[in-house]
Fold each of these.
Amino acid sequence: MKLVYLKSSFFLLLMIVACGPKKRPVYNEGINITPVPSQVINGQGTFELKSSTKLFASSQELSGVINGLKSQLRASTGYDLPISAQFEKSNSINISINPSISDNYEAYELTVNNNHIAIVGASKEGAFYGVQSLLQLFPAEIASKEVINNIDWLVPSVEIKDEPRFKWRGMHLDVCRHYVPVENIKKHLDVMAMYKMNKFHWHLTEDQGWRIEIKKYPLLTEVGSKRIEADGTEYGGIYTQEQIKEIVAYASERMIDVVPEIELPGHGLGALTAYPYLSCTRGPFKVRNYWGVEPDVFCAGKESAFIFLEDVIDEVVELFPSPYFHIGGDECPKIRWEKCPHCQKRIKDEGLKDEHELQSYFIKRIEKILLAHGKKMIGWDEILEGGLAESAVVMSWRGEEGGIEAATHGHDVVMTPGDWCYLDHYQGDSNVEPVAIGGYTTLEDTYGYEPVPEELDHKMVHHILGTQGNVWTEYMYTPEIVEYRVYPRIIALAEVNWSTKENRDFESFVKRMDNQFVRLDMNAINYHIPLPEGPCNHVVFTDSVKLEFTSTRPIKIVYTTDNSEPTLASEEYTEPLSFKENTTLKITSVLVSGKMGTVRTINIEKQALKPALDVKTTTNNALKQQRVDGTFVRVAQLENVTNWEEGVSDLSSKPAYEDESVKTTEAKILTGYIEIPEDGVYEFNTNLDQFYIDGELLINNDGLVKRFSRNNSTIALAKGKHAVKLIYMENNLGGWPQAWNGLEVNYRLYGTENFEKIAKEMYSF
Ligand code: ACM
Ligand code: ZN
């Protein structure tokens, strides 16, 4: 799917700003501070920033804060504002610290009147957040990285008192499934700071790759960080210790604490491939090139595994000043431990009941190491199983139960339940969005998350530290797709974390986001814009068809029917569209800033019913099968195959998830007939490589990730038999093995609610 490219829309925006009289764009109207502050009192008049405006910071501690403000103002306004040595009464921005303004060290007060701006933070952090709010009172173009000349840099008079509701305002990022370059991580940190987020949870080790340089164990870089993809290409990436220090320092300037995650005892195949002695079986292993959970884990019986982890921790704690250290702890299969003599001996020697208690033993040993370094251990909610380590902080991801249980027993908790906080989920219809892991969590769903569960005893509520968005990157193949999934949902969570419950209002948030999107444009962030949803991209009709579009939140939609690209002047979609002729419909969404989303192209085609074939078939509930051994990635490779084995397929698929090593070693072509139950237009859906009907290539997933096919298509068919051809290649593209899909094809009468699987009884040859 083509993603929106930001450069062109950025220039469009500059043109809107640069041409014509100085009219305030709609997105700059009102106060758009996000997350919404605790208290805002509007005043009279405005402050105007001039090239002569002076900046003053009351203490050396604020030098980073004032310099950050100065450099942002210089970038967009071109003013090189003087920094004054003393408090200035007029034409000035003064920043100071006064711990007595609040018990909450992150609080600030911001006062703007006609000739003076004052920011008072309860601490350096508070002052920094005051600066972020001040920047958000300026026109959105203040966030520009380039000078914009003809804007009045006005700030409305206002008195703000503000502080965060929660301490932990986080974003997690998995850089193992897909590597995120340092520059892209810095972009996230920039945006996190704009929205007053303060925890970057960096998921650094996985089955699919180890990503942090450990000097004592060089094979982690040389071997553990690299995987061979199913198409034979090498994928890898590592952060050197110098790069890590650079990121930690960059985050610290933005008041963001970087929390490292080193996964144990599971999700460790990167390390096990480099050093197989760490496992129960001694391998050999390969860094995993498909998603899911690896059964090989760190051995809980061998001392050498603990020595390795202690050495790793010794190096990692030196790099991260954070008081927290995340040890993973999730999804650790026990099947190796059950058979391992070392692990079984450990269970016996330590008087443990089972492998769950062995996991708990493992985590408690790691806790001791971390405590000796003065670190607080944090882990996913599985660390509750078999007995929770005394000092552990729990990150609740499999719902809220783990978090409730931990908080009830006096443990601190970060709430990240999947239904609201997993930003790898779809945020719109899977038929039109780029392939994702699954789930469905719209911006409104995320915004609606309440981190304090009703069931929790009010005396334990202080143990809820806050929430964070989790960004697992299996289906985020590029840094741009990471941004697409993260924004704007993470900003919804920023507001959940910062703002009072009473002040939260989705309609107000969405309106403020019109302004924030312009700021994201200035940061070249590839954020999600809701797409027009509903019809698939090839709509067939016999007489006429009416197409209705929806979107995940109210947004302007425009379209053309003359094959031209939609523009801001195109017809606005206000009601379902009717078609009687062949048409190419191009349709897209438009933000208040004028930025457009991805354009969908929908081919609308009039067809007569394809007549049924007058054929006699002799084999029922099956298709004719040609099968060949070999690894095939693209359908064209099948053209050279001469050694097909002929046979019969009953369409049954192997149970694939049981397979520990997914095979990618065969291809099949199935041919025969399908019995269509009644005349009509049918919509088909499949993750097969290709699906043909009556000789027409109806669905083509060649070269794509074979998951949640985006290529549904329709065809008009008369009741009776129609020829079909199914092409299945047992490949693994983008980490999803075709073997996990099997031979399934689904269909429905066009316009009806649910798809049904084509039953084998409908096939014959
Ligand atoms: C997780 O999503 N496995 C923590
Ligand atoms: Zn073992």
Note: The first helix runs from residue 6 to 18.
Amino acid sequence: MAAIFSKKNAAGELTGLPRHIAIILDGNGRWAKKRGLPRTAGHVEGSENFRRIATYCKNIGVEYLTVYAFSTENWKRPPEEVGAIMKLLGKYLHEAVDTMAKDHIRMKILGDVSALSPELRSLVDKTEKISQGYDGFQANICLNYGGRDEIIRAASRWAQDAAEGKVSGELTEEIFSSYLYSAGIPDPDLLIRPGGEQRISNFLLWQCAYSEFYYTDTLWPDFTPNDLDKAIEVYRSRDRRFGGVKNP
Ligand code: FPP
């Protein structure tokens, strides 16, 4: 565990940690290009880094890590690249099934899995089923995910339920949240975007209403636990008011 954290409570636990960290995995292609490698090599390194950072998050006591691995717009990429990313996701999930008994990481895929191959869908089902009993740390992988798409689907599903008399009364934020892919998951406290861009790119649009944003030029494959420590330190220095005032 990194030494950067100084605030501990009487029980020796770290305080002020974000409960939920969301990360846009950006910069894989540039990482590969800088090394004269094909873009897919960057995705390989990016998926290995997801493994490292997820383990680190679990070890320091973060409860949820959500990563943006493939967006609803990423299908526009060359078919070889899409295929390589899907293959990597399959490999990751396959390995996750093997190591779950040891790692105790609860896994969830957020997104429209109906567009995925039958093999990948069955791996998604398997990983989610095996790991659902684990608690303490949950890794969410956003796959064929788009924030607008998620909101439209949630609204349509609610309208359908209302038309069928399955729900009644006013639609509240809480009820709406329960129709999202992220139902039951607290909103991200900290959103990190490596890779130098400073935009949200259709990621967790509803859920990030009050998240703290942190951007860095470091490319995702180069993003280390030390970089995560820095992001958490910045997060801890922020004054979160959720629209209120501090000392009224
Ligand atoms: C964005 O970087 C990255 C992606 C669209 C793919 C991310 C996918 C993985 C890391 C593989 C599987 C993930 C897991 C969680 C097992 P980019 O390629 O657009 O980077 P660039 O801006 O440098 O081109």
Note: The CA atoms of residues 50 and 200 lie 19 Å apart.
Amino acid sequence: MTTILSTVPIDLGERSYSIAIGSQLLGNPATFAALPNATSAFVVSNTSVAPVYAQSLIGALQERYPRVHLITLPDGEAFKTWEVLNQIFDALLTNGADRKAVLFALGGGVVGDMTGFAAACFMRGIAFVQVPTTLLAQVDSSVGGKTGINHPLGKNMVGAFYQPELVVCDLDTIKTLPQRELSAGLAEIIKYGPIADLQFLEWIESHLDNLLAREVAALAHAVERSCQIKAMVVGQDERESGLRAILNFGHTFGHAIEAGMGYGKWLHGEAVGCGMVMAAHLSQRLGLVEMAFVKRLTALVRRAKLPVIGPVLDPKDNAGRYLELMRLDKKSEAGEIRFVLIDGPGTAIMRSASDVLVREVIDTCCTDLL
Ligand code: NAD
Ligand code: GLY
């Protein structure tokens, strides 16, 4: 039975929208009833997700729109490129899309980021809807309007802030997610506790087994609270001129791990999980948080089946390689790395730290002493 378990509003003035969270949503025409009329709908998905979920979504949309088309992209981060983006434009133009066409992103963060960017660019901007099917996409990437593609010289380097009309988080899709992808999503859920909500961190600690078992009630609360926190942050700082950067807790170390290992070796969420442990250690070294909290966070990340020991990126000068990669982070200013740190449990700040201290943290975190 279709159930909307909760709705989270994103308050961005004329760009406001809502996130529907529940069960059996994507196959129900009622889910999409409040969307504005459109001349045609295009479901953008990939070769793994489309065979499982596209028919159901297309069936619902056919009751709403005169024409519905499916665009199937290759699956994987390696295909988040100009060439594949162009396949979306080719399909839109070949099938007569106009300014009143609407795109539906059906898939994880890769499909969501690419579809959003295509919507931002096509005819200078058309409507789009996010239908995220990974936990990571439901709690993070589908919300807040960051869209884009990768450049050979850097991840997510080309893109736009462009908000969807609606986000539909159908929790049933999480049932088919591979275990590693589930854990990657848990990393982004855990992230919200230390930076913004200690009570939520406690809730995750006591419900982690329910989340690992993919229980709908637990998933519903985790997705709802994560989206509420993200909505609160994005509502204050849509274009990341300050506050929004706290959503990157664990990402500075994590991006270095992803790049240093070679993209795809560690999943983004796995690198973020380990990166949060490293950022917590740095916070402790700077006197911002007790070691007891670092151990607590490490234990939770480990229980979520995420790595907690940093990989060695260069046996000759491991810390030097991390530092080199972290200087390329988008938050760096004039070559100075800006870290998101925990300033007491439940609060985040942005700070730089001396290379000496960062090297000590990397040396500690890349051994199995944790
Ligand atoms: P992904 O999109 O690659 O999906 C992971 C894998 O799961 C893929 O193979 C996909 O086909 C498969 N999959 C998706 N849904 C499934 C389902 N229900 N059942 C079975 N398999 C399924 O990865 P992701 O973790 O969802 O997203 C990562 C991307 O998101 C990265 O490109 C990252 O840069 C981006 N991102 C963007 C933001 C943002 O704010 N826009 C935030 C975080 C991450
Ligand atoms: N995922 C970080 C952000 O949306 O800002």
Note: The chain is about 45% helix and 20% strand.
